[in-house]
Amino acid sequence: MSKRIPSITKIKAALAYRAFTTSFSFPIVTRTTRARLNAAQQFWDEHRSAVTMLKSPKRALLHHFQGHSGASARKGQVLLVHGWGSRALHMSAYIRELLNYGYDVHALDLPAHGENPRGRIYWHDSVNAIVSASREIGPVHAAIGHSYGGMMLGYSLVASKLDSRISDELNTQKLVLLASPTRLSTPVKLFTRMLRCSLEERGAFEKRILADTRFDSIDELSLSSLWAETVPSCDIQIVHGKQDKIVSIADSQYLAKTIDKASLTVLEGVGHVRILSDERLVSSVVASL
């Protein structure tokens, strides 16, 4: 019986990894949410000027919204990246406000998300998609990411250190992380706990995630560790709701303590999703760019 344990461990780790890389859309559970998304879709239909299928990876879509001609002056380009299981459409409140300020906006649908939901989602593909998007649009004034998208933006600042297949990196003047995990170990621990994985099974699962990287431990894939080696040149703004029940505020607090250039804003009465639609918060974030 003991001889079979390693094989069983590998099988469970493989199944866990397959589930971990499968994206799904969160259901619309309220009339308010449904109405908000319908309004967002109408806004997109009226204001989206172009959509581009990125060459690498080909499953990523880049949506372009041109700054209002009536705005005082074009302030530059802003890249938006949604969270895991979400889509660029859910960033519409930020797109609308950015357009009002005169920014050109590019909202990314990560691989296996949004209008191209087929396939699987791997973190290195997400980083590659962000770097490809920045290459496609040119200079990026600011990058704003929600949840998983924020962490992937953080990885993109040091992309060449993570994956030898990626030669470029995201270059931006300002990075905004909205309710983002800052350590890959955070979602991994949550996921393996949900699946009731043993320590041995979790170790095998982490090895699958670390394949094709130079890292030996999942703990090395934290923004604080990566940025300690290569300090980003951009300003870093972290925004997190105190009532976030999906991504603990502890991740943001840890990053703010360990990286001098990172500032943290803690929001009372705001959860993981509301951070995308609260009008006062959206206006405050955009005004700070």
Structure explained in plain terms:
- This protein is 41% helix and 16% strand.
- With 289 residues, it is an alpha/beta fold.
- It has a domain at 50-183 and 221-287: 3-Layer(aba) Sandwich (Rossmann fold).
- Helix 1 packs across helix 8 and helix 3 crosses helix 11 (279-287).
- The N and C termini lie far apart (60 Å).
CATH class of one domain: Alpha Beta
Tell the overall outline. globular
Counting H and I runs of at least 4 residues, what is the number of helices?
11
Question: Could you give a short account of the major beta sheet?
Answer: 8 strands, mixed
Q: What is the CATH third-level topology name of one domain?
A: Rossmann fold
Question: Runs with pLDDT <50, length 5+?
Answer: 1-5
Chain-wise SSE layout:
Elements: H1 5-20, H2 31-47, E1 50-53, E2 61-65, E3 77-81, H3 92-100, E4 104-109, H4 123-137, E5 140-146, H5 148-156, H6 159-162, E6 172-178, H7 185-194, H8 199-210, H9 223-229, E7 235-241, H10 249-258, E8 262-267, H11 279-287
Parallel strand pairs: 3-4, 3-5, 5-6, 6-7, 7-8
Antiparallel strand pairs: 1-2, 2-4
Helix pairs in contact: 1-8, 3-11, 4-5
Features:
eight-stranded mixed sheet, 289 residues, alpha/beta, 11 helices, globular, single chain, Rossmann fold
